[in-house]
Design a protein that fits this description.
Layout (H helix, E strand, L loop, with lengths): L8 E7 L6 H8 L8 E6 L6 H9 L6 E5 L6 H12 L5 E5 L3 E3 L3 H11 L3 E5 L3 E2 L7 H23 L11 E5 H5 L1 H9 L13 H10 L3 E4 L5 E3 L5 H22 L6 H31 L6 H16 L9 H9 L1 H22 L7
Parallel strand pairs: 1-2, 1-4, 2-3, 6-9, 7-10
Antiparallel strand pairs: 4-8, 5-10, 6-8
Length: 363
């Protein structure tokens, strides 16, 4: 499919029951300043109106859209992508994006421009924004706002470590096809396993292929490549999502073991355990101190460290896309973010238990 040249892009969108948002996703692709050569919707075990809606959309456009329906796929998103890669003749650049993601009009143009500048750059990921919440529930608004701030912090870290991103995320990443095709050979050489591009038993397929690519390719983020995704609006859904991300990350690091690519990732987990312990001790000390001494005698150094951490956190709001008043209110209140931090810490601690005791986890 498609003539291969330096600006030829194939867009792959794995979709499982995405009737509520798939038309919006497609619309964002066909408003791009750089038109993709082809768009492939990988419909995986859909039981809703996703396929009929795509077919209806195709009738309204002259753009090239292919519906690729998976066959007997049990490998979730990774399996769906593998079936497409194995059967399609794709262009030299491949954008893999989630079906609940919308792109800025210059996303493809910006990503292709960046890849064309460096031949050893294997992939560039987008910035990560989240779609607006227009409901009236204050509880859902709170959960949305905490993630809105969090995704901005993700972007701040991408900017600070532009050439050393943690993950070429599944939300929207533009790959060099050559880089993707090198992954099975890498796994065969290093792990002596036969595989397709994506590992179908992995909970976080994007993180696993990121670690594979880092051995032979440069990876980066493209700050001009804007994208927005849908997010969970209940604690239960958020817990399930984060536990899958975190447990999948731990499983992946354990399978890749200690090497030049994973060393800092593994050390960060040990640092996290230390910081959780220190945070717990600090909380106990704070309660004890306030009970016995109140605000008298606080060490100026301790106060300055706390203030620095707070202002640094507040400064990172500049990376949040389309900031709202609720973002500033949550920052000023402090407590919601502290509780959210503990929520995430508990999820990571529980992911260690799930991983090391090999407890089965649902997608």
């Amino acid at each position: 499919m498609g003539h291969k040249n330096n600006n030829s892009v194939s867009v792959l969108i794995p979709a499982h029951n995405e009737e509520e948002i798939i038309v919006e996703t497609l619309s964002s692709i066909f408003t791009q300043t750089l038109k993709p050569k082809e768009v492939v919707i990988i419909c995986d075990n859909c039981t809703d109106n996703t396929v009929p809606l795509i077919k209806a959309f195709i009738k309204t456009t002259k753009e090239k859209i292919t519906i690729f329906e998976t066959s007997n796929n049990v490998g979730k998103k990774a399996g769906a992508l593998n079936q497409a890669f194995n059967k399609l003749n794709l262009n030299n650049f491949v954008l893999v994006m989630d079906a609940d993601t919308s792109l800025d009009i210059k996303a493809l143009e910006s990503g292709v421009h960046m890849l064309n500048k460096e031949s050893d750059l294997g992939a560039v990921c987008s910035r990560a924004g989240i779609m607006n919440y227009n409901g009236k529930s204050l509880w859902k608004k709170l959960i949305w706002t905490l993630q809105h701030i969090e995704y901005g912090q993700f972007d701040s870290h991408r900017i600070e470590t532009k050439g050393k991103i943690k993950v070429a995320h599944g939300m929207a990443t533009l790959f060099r096809l050559e880089a993707l095709k090198s992954i099975p050979d890498f796994r065969k050489k290093i792990f002596n396993i036969d595989s397709d591009i994506y590992l179908e038993d992995n909970l976080v397929e994007d993180y696993e292929i990121t670690l594979c690519l880092k051995h032979n390719w440069k990876l980066s983020s493209c700050m001009d490549m804007l994208a927005w995704t849908d997010v969970p609006l209940s604690l239960k859904e958020l817990w399930v999502q984060r536990l899958r991300w975190l447990r999948g990350g731990v499983d992946t690091l354990r399978s890749h073991s200690w090497n030049q690519v994973t060393v800092f990732e593994i050390l960060n987990h040990w640092l996290f355990i230390l910081l959780v312990f220190l945070r717990g001790m600090a909380a106990v000390f704070f309660v004890y101190y306030m009970k016995n001494f109140g605000f008298q005698g606080f060490d100026p150094f301790v106060v300055s460290v706390i203030l620095f951490a707070y202002f640094d956190s507040f400064y990172r709001l500049r990376y949040v896309q389309n900031k709202t008043l609720s973002d500033y209110i949550i920052k000023l209140l402090i407590l919601p973010e502290l509780l959210y931090g503990w929520f995430q810490a508990l999820a990571l601690l529980w992911s260690y238990i799930l991983s090391f005791f090999k407890i089965k986890q649902r997608w």
